[in-house]
Automatic annotation (TrEMBL):
Pfam family, one: Response_reg
One Gene Ontology biological process: phosphorelay signal transduction system
Domain Response regulatory residue range list: 9-125
Regions crossing the membrane: none
Identification of the protein by name: Putative two-component system response regulator
Residue ranges constituting the HD-GYP domain according to the UniProt record: 152-363
Length: 365
């Protein structure tokens, strides 16, 4: 047996009490009934504590006709989804186009026949139930997608962080070097996007570049301690071994990517490119492959400038830190030789940001 709590609620709107009574008698055994005798009253009832599941709306009413009532219902987000069935006398001329234009979904003619009224109301309520069910399913699906996306993002973050932590334990450079270069790369990418046509530099990809930058020297885990931790400058033979860290890093990340399937779109693609190519030079004189110009992936070209700038301004066992102005002069000297000219232009545009990042993550702090 149905109770008031689980019955659908119908709002019957008509300026004639007899018409409300007729429809109520037909429907009250199956539905909970609300009534309104004017357009204004109908709008108030529709927005009340009990939201009707369906409205049976007379067209010909004084002051505000059914068309206007329906129009206002559909303009209000709180009532826009309530289905409206017009009720009109057979002697009245029904403008079907106007009725559907203002948002009605059906109409019933007077004098009403109980079987028709019950069938039309039941059909529209069933459609409404399915629409709500579909909307609920879509909301749940959207929430699941958001949760899975957040979970995937966090997994990526943890993976990159774990790999970066591993690299940091084997590197004789400071953790602040990693943080500085990470922010340099992000600032450069955003500035480069403003300077030209770089569709690759979407917000999502710039974030991925930022997260991947700490892995630029992960290949150093494969360099012997005697070379990696040597306090002085490396000799030629030692430097030849040290240079293999770029290829080692790229290969290690490439192996990790193979288990992910879609290698070109994996979340580690920029980490691989940065690790492998950040010592390549624009003129082809870099390593490990001697790539030239735009054959060097953009991620590697960005990291190249960020890494060299930070090495210049940082203290090393074999050198004192350079000033920003001296480092800048060397970067400009390397424009078109060591560095992508466009990346150097981006650096010039935001050099104050580099200064701020260097101060914020200084080794002294």
């Amino acid at each position: 047996m149905q109770t008031d709590e689980n019955r659908a609620t119908l709002l019957i709107v008509d300026d004639e009490p007899i018409n409300i009574s007729v429809l109520s008698d037909i429907l009250r055994d199956k539905y909970r009934i609300l009534a309104a005798r004017s357009g204004e009253q109908a709008l108030t009832r529709a927005q009340g504590d009990i939201t009707p599941d369906l409205i049976l709306l007379d067209i010909m009413m004084p002051e505000m006709d059914g068309y206007e009532v329906c129009r206002r219902l559909k303009q209000d987000p709180s009532t826009a989804e309530i289905p409206v069935i017009f009720v009109t006398a057979m002697t009245q001329e029904l403008d079907e186009s106007a009725a559907f234009d203002v948002g009605a979904i059906d109409y019933i003619t007077k004098p009403v026949r109980p079987a028709i009224v019950l069938a039309r109301v039941r059909a529209q309520l069933e459609l409404q139930w399915h629409r709500r069910r579909l909307a609920d399913d879509n909301r749940r699906l959207d929430e699941m997608v958001r949760e899975r996306t957040a979970e995937l993002y966090n997994t990526q973050q943890v993976t990159i962080h774990a790999m970066a932590t591993l690299a940091e334990t084997r590197d004789n450079e400071t953790g602040n070097h990693i943080r500085r270069t990470q922010y340099y790369v992000k600032a450069l990418a955003e500035a480069l996007r403003d300077l030209g046509d770089y569709p690759e530099l979407s917000d999502e990809n710039i974030d991925l570049l930022y997260r991947s930058a700490p892995l630029h020297d992960i290949g150093k885990v494969g360099i012997p301690d005697a070379i990696l931790l040597k306090p002085g400058k490396l000799d030629d033979a030692e430097f030849t071994i040290m240079k293999t860290h770029a290829e080692l890093g790229g290969a290690a990340i490439d192996e990790a990517e193979k288990s992910l399937g879609n290698r070109e779109n994996s979340f580690l693609r920029y980490a691989r490119q940065i690790a492998h190519y950040h010592h390549e030079k624009w003129d082809g004189s870099g390593y490990p492959q001697g790539l030239k110009g735009e054959d060097i992936p953009l991620a590697g070209r960005l990291m190249a400038l960020a890494d060299v700038y930070d090495a210049l301004i940082s203290r090393r066992a074999y050198k004192e830190p350079f000033s920003h102005e001296r480092a800048k002069a060397l970067l400009l000297e390397g424009k078109g030789k060591h560095f992508d000219p466009a990346v150097v232009e981006a650096f010039e545009k935001i050099e104050d940001s580099f200064i701020d990042i260097a101060k914020r993550f200084s080794d002294e702090d």
